[in-house]
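#data-curation
PF: Archiving a pair of folding outputs for the training set. Convention for this channel: one message per protein, sequence first, structure tokens after, nothing in between. First:
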Amino acid sequence: MNTLLQLFLVLSIIVAVAKIAGHLSTKIGQPPVFGKILAGLILGPSLLNMLGWPVFRSSQAETALLLPELVHYLAEIGVILLMFIAGLETDIKGIIKVGNNAFWAAAGGVILPMGIGTWFSRSMGFSLNESLFIGTILTATSVSITAQTLMEIGALKSKEGSTILGAAVIDDVMGIIALSLVVAFSLNPASGPSSQSGFSSIGLLLVRIAAFFAVSVIMGIKFFEPILKYAEKLSTTKAVFAAALVVCFIYAWAAEYFGKVAAITGSYMAGVLFTRTSFFKKIGESAKTFAYSFFVPIFLLDIGLRANARELGGNITFTVIIIAIAVLAKVGGCLLGSLATGFNMKESVRVGIGMISRGEVGLIVASYGLTHAIIKRDIFSAMVLMVLVTTLITPVLLRFVFPKKHLIET
């Protein structure tokens, strides 16, 4: 069977299983996202290893590697679209109102996990570079899973929801700065933090991040409405949504290529800026149909398909403790930051839980460390399991701490 036919079959299985799993999840009072990620774990190499079934194997090694990559690329489109939709449903005034809370929640959620993670890794005998990198992975926050769950339970526009979304954007900037510093010093130990080249690199990074955000906002305010009005005049189907989609992907590309922040930050920003236009409701309806019917289910199942608990080896104790640190330190850091800025305990706990999930951000950081030989494969597998566990428990805990509302299947 050629790769194209294999892709047709595997996508049919993924989308069908995702929708059924999401439905079953709502039947037991959990958000659909929980069932979809769990289904991915069952189908992945940890249990059934679906992509290793004879029907998906190939006699040519290069072709055999292609199918998982194709599925993952489609999953990446899913998370971009998911964050674009989250941006379209974001209450800008609400985020501005909680801006101070978001900053300190993000700061606490970066400092505490990195500090405790680094200290624990050093106590387990890992090198300083490895320990710092493990701590850096723990700083990551993937708001995509949280945003999906908040949308499902009707809490995206709540005060806590707005704070989580704002804090996640700030967390991404802080995390990329920490990652850049750790990677720079790991790959070039001679360039210490006090060296002139080290300061120059940090300065350049901050300038690029600031420039990306500034240019993105200005372009969105000035050009989004005229672009959509021009598209509306075109005698072609769904031209307005197509124009919005082009902008979404350009922002995702520019965020990572020029701004050195995650691509999902760019697509989220595009969605937020489109809320200023007169077309945002029309764009949102089309985006949901386009994303939730195909791309988002692939993204959610792909998380489980990429995890392999069998690679942990003898690091079970380390893995269990690092997962506990990942959860408790993130919740604790965000909770302290929220309490310090006027949130009550219940609201602060909600913000902390909303920031637990590492999702694709944690996987990206861990993959970078493995590729550049900063961490070994067994540690990488432990980090993948940590990412998976935090991603799985976040929807459950959010559903528990937020007021019970009608669950919406997506």
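PF: Second:
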Amino acid sequence: MRKIFGWGARNGAMLNENKGGPWGSGGGSGGGGPRNPWGEPSRRPRANPGGNVTSLDEFLKKSRERFGGRFPHQDGRPYWLYGLAIAVLLWLAFTSVHRIGPQEAGVITRFGSYVGTMGPGIGFSLPAPIDRVQKVDVQAIRTVDIGSTDRSSENLILTGDQNIIDLAYSVRWNISDPERFLFQIKDPEETIREVAESAMRAVVAGVTLDEAIGAGRSQIEQRVEQVMQQLLADYKAGVRVQGIAIKQSDPPAAVNDAFKEVSAAQQQAQSYINDARAYALQLTAKAQGEAAAFDKVYIQYKAAPEVTRRRMYYETMEKVLARVDKTIVEAPGVTPYLPLNEMQKRAAPSNEGTAR
């Protein structure tokens, strides 16, 4: 055994001295012999033709050192796989999780077909393009204006008494069923406008001109709201009408001035009629009061005719004489005032006779 190990050690020393075997050095600085096929390759760093190491090489080297020599590229996996995984996660997060506001509803469609509605809060669905969620504000009050108040355009409607008026009004509405609102009719707002015009013309055709421009406007608004709601329910539009507001109800512009004069005359005549009625009511109330007072006096007259007659005479004379100048009539033997001078003269002779 010692001979064997000794022989191996000698052969190893010879190989080392030979530096690569019988073919010479495997790429050392000395020796010009052929290259040893079993020798180790040269470990000298290759010269960089550009001089210094580029910034990209330094970045990759530092990245490998930061990951402990396990940078993803060292494991044979390219960078784009990790980028793809991150993109997939972001895609799932942004297309599968939905935040629905307190006044909103989320309509879910799967390949274009309706599958459900999300309520307020956080909701989940399949990622796009499988599922799509469309948010709809179901509590916002929307307004459709029909006609113009500045006379830029006229909305002429025929009344029941064959007169024409220019109406400007607005319709307030909101969404009651998001599914039907989105998928039942093509253009919901245009449909609401047309339904409002049709309902207004149908209602105004049954009233007179005075009712359309006067006190009957509130009733017209209520009837138009009812007719509109019925039509939209028949269409299954998913819309609830909140109210109708008539902003302007005037004759056409061509006859507006003359109509205003007629209206002013009618209002003045109505004012005179109201004044006359108020005066008549005042006189009636006064007469009723006097009649009630006379009834009370008559009851007293029946109880004591002479006393009541005299009291009524005195009261009447008091009222009459209070409004005229006073006249004093001297009756024979009546002194209307106290004559102090004459009384002193009469008293003087009597005093002299007494002194004698």
